[in-house]
């Protein structure tokens, strides 16, 4: 939940640039803030899915898979938008997680 710090701290965008080095360094502050919000929402989504599984004492295969798909789509859209080598690596890792999840 470090994304809160990036959003509400005075130097939050500068800290986010240091933390998220997978995106181009010349990115406008508006785009960087959008990235931070997307990452925050992804974290909340994964936290919610995990808490539901923990509280219900059940493994919700479809919910976990859907959250992985949503996160992967976000990563792929980011890669296509920025066309930057490091964002390609980020998208590749999310796709690899989906493949591993399907195989296991």
Would you mind describing this structure in some detail?
The protein has 104 residues and is mainly α. The protein is 81% helix and 0% strand. It is built from five helices and no strands. It has helices spanning 2-8, 12-19, 29-56, 61-82, 85-103. Helix 1 crosses helix 2 (12-19) and helix 4 (61-82) runs antiparallel to helix 5.
Task: Give a brief outline of the structure.
The chain is an all-alpha fold.
Lay out the secondary structure.
Layout: H1 2-8, H2 12-19, H3 29-56, H4 61-82, H5 85-103
Helix pairs in contact: 1-2, 1-3, 3-4, 4-5
Q: Which features characterize this protein?
A:
mainly alpha, 104 residues
What is the string of helix and strand elements? HHHHH
What's the number of helices? 5
Mean pLDDT: 82
What is the 3D form? flat
* Unreliable runs: none
Bin the helical content.
over 70%
- C-alpha end-to-end distance: 28 Å
